[in-house]
Every structure is written in C-alpha cells, then in structure tokens.
Amino acid sequence: MLSFWLLEYIIALCRLIIVTSPSTYATYSLILLQPCVCPLSKPIFKSIPLSQTLQDSQSPPPFCNRRRKKKNNLQTKMKNSNSNTKLILLHPYIQKQGTSNRLWLLAFVSFFTIAFLLTLIYTRESISLKTTSGSAATMDTKSTSSVSAGFGNPPLPTTVINTLLLYASRSNDSYHMTHSELKRISDVIRKCSSPCNFLVFGLTQETLLWKALNHNGRTVFIDENRYYAAYFEELHPEIDVFDVQYTTKIRETKELIASAKEQIRNECKPVQNLLFSECKLGINDLPNHVYEVDWDVILIDGPRGDGPDGPGRMSPIFTAGVLARSKKGGNPKTHIFVHDYYRHVERMCGDEFLCKENLVEFNDMLAHFVLEKMDENSFEFCRNNNASSRASASS
C-alpha cells in the first residue's frame, strides 16, 4: 500500500514539471530525450529540437566531447517562430536559473509527504497492537476474577489464628491487649459473614493482626497522626489507613455531650449520614466510601485518651454509634468494642451513645456492645434514657 501511494505521488510530481509558454498558457511542451552514448562513460541526456529530431531519427547519436575532437553543434533554432512548443533540457551538470528553487521546493514537499505517510502507518500499527494487547489483558483479568470468585479464599485455620493470638499477646510492648481481649474480638470476626467489614480507630501493636484475621474481608484503619499513618501505609501497602484531625479535648467532654443532646433532632441525630453533619462529636472528614459501607465490627482503640488536652475517644464512640444505627443493608447488628473502658471518658460516652442495654460483655479493659440499625425517625440513642426522661417529666 505504501509503494502504491509513493508511485501515485511521483506521477503527480512529474505532471507538475510541465512548463507553459509565456504567451499561451494552454499549450503544453513536448519532452524529447535522446541519450548520447560514449564508450567508458555514462549516458548524458541532452535536449534536441523537435525539427532536427524528426530529420535525424535514423542517424547515429552525436559524438561525445571526451572521445571526439570535433564538436558538432546539434542545437539549432526553431525555424517555425509561430510554434509555442518548447523543449525541456534535463542535464545533471547544468542548472538553469529559476529551476533550482523549484527542485528544492519539490524535494522539501516530497520529504514531508513521505515522513507523514510513514508516521501515519506506524501510528495505525501501534494503535492496533495496543488495542489487541488491551483486549487480551482484559480477557485475562476477567477470567482470573471469575476463577477466583468461583473458588473463593478459604478462611484461616484455627491453629493459625490461635498462634497469631498467642504471639501477639506475648509482645514485649506494654501497650498491647491481653490474650483474652484478643480472643473475644477474634471470635466475633470469625463468626462474621464473609466478607466482613471491620473498622478500627487507632494504629496499635495489633494492626497487622486485625488485617490478618480478616484477610477475606475489608479492614480500614483511622488514626490521628497524619505522618505516622503515611509512614505505616508505606511500610505495609496492603493496609488501608486514613488520618483524622480531631478538634475535641478531654476537658470538654461534658460540654460536648450536652451539645450533642441539644442537637439530637438536628445535627446530632442517631441516624444520619455523617458526611453532611455539623455535629461537634461527629467525624465528617473521612472518605465518602467509609460512610457508605455497612460495618459489621468496629473497634475503638484510639486516639489518645490521656491528659486534659488529648483528643479523647468521644468522637469515635459517637461516630460508631451513628454508623451502626444508620446501616442500610447487610447484617442489622453491629459489634462495637471499646478498649480502655475503665477510663471515665470512655465509660461516660459509652453509656450515652452506645447504651447500657446494648452492653454484652465487659471487663476492666474491654467493653463489647451490639447495636441494631434504627429507623430514620428515631431521635434517641438509648431506650432507657427516653423512659427516664418521661418519668422525670411526669414527676
């Protein structure tokens, strides 16, 4: 196909070489070429007038200048002055004035035309190759995903889980959970329907353990330290970590709880999308998909809860209660674990937003709540609080 285009282009260029007469623009010239053959030399083309060519059609070609001493002038003037036909001289050693510019122009146009054709052909071939490879990769991905979906990932064996719990509980770090605490959370994750959605507040010594125990599900971690979250995610790319900038202070716990009660029918409702909430205790700067997931298990083990200027865990407890009550699908129940429940702030917020009637198990360090989703028109976190408020109002 390329050779055909080049042939057509050469024919078009040859047609452009035609020279017209100054007086008559409709008359075309006639090109007559006769080679002068000399021994041991290359043929040289000279232009011969039309009249002399007709007379000397049977005579031998003129002698060359290099081999003959006599030089015959073969060019004569045209006798017929009325004729408008001109002859074009094609000689490799003679350049007429005005012809060089035209040749350079034709060479310039020819070069760019050939370059354009080559670029077009190469681009079309590369696009076709990319399309073919992309379709093949898509087919491979679909087939792989279908195979993996058909077989599925088996759950972790019990021996592996027990080994992980044992080594995690015997860590040299003083800020780690005990074996009994790890076992309670692990049992809930094992009973969770696959895939299990696990939300964890705080990056701790058990972060990799939670990810391993829920290897078939989705595990998301939320931490207060932006730099540590980025560093941890760089070390472990398989971990999903998001940072949150807490604006609460532990010394403001009572004021924040009172403000949430006042706004319980507006910004601090128990059933809402916290992404659009302005409640002081609500976390509304997480990625959108975090609010759309129906979380099955929520663990609150962060942020820092010591010191009056610490952010405390009021916002995570309130947010966990709203996420559990605002579920749209999946399991209607949500398991919420609150670590360090012996502290005053954790216990106070747990009683207000997670409610004592939902407390399943409790020891000095870990509290286990089970909450169910509620109707959108519900404006009370706890049923007992509603009953007590009615009793106090009637009295």
Automatic annotation (TrEMBL):
Keyword Ligase (UniProt): no
Region (Disordered): 53-74
Transmembrane annotation, as ranges: 6-33, 103-122
Membrane topology field: Single-pass membrane protein
Signal peptide boundaries: none
Top-level taxonomic group: Eukaryota
GO biological process assignments: xylan biosynthetic process
Keywords carried by this UniProt record: Golgi apparatus, Membrane, Transmembrane, Transmembrane helix
Subcellular location as annotated: Golgi apparatus membrane
Gene Ontology annotations for the cellular component aspect, listed alphabetically: Golgi membrane
The keyword Lyase belongs to this UniProt entry's keyword annotation: no
Identification of the protein by name: Uncharacterized protein
Species this protein is from: Citrus clementina
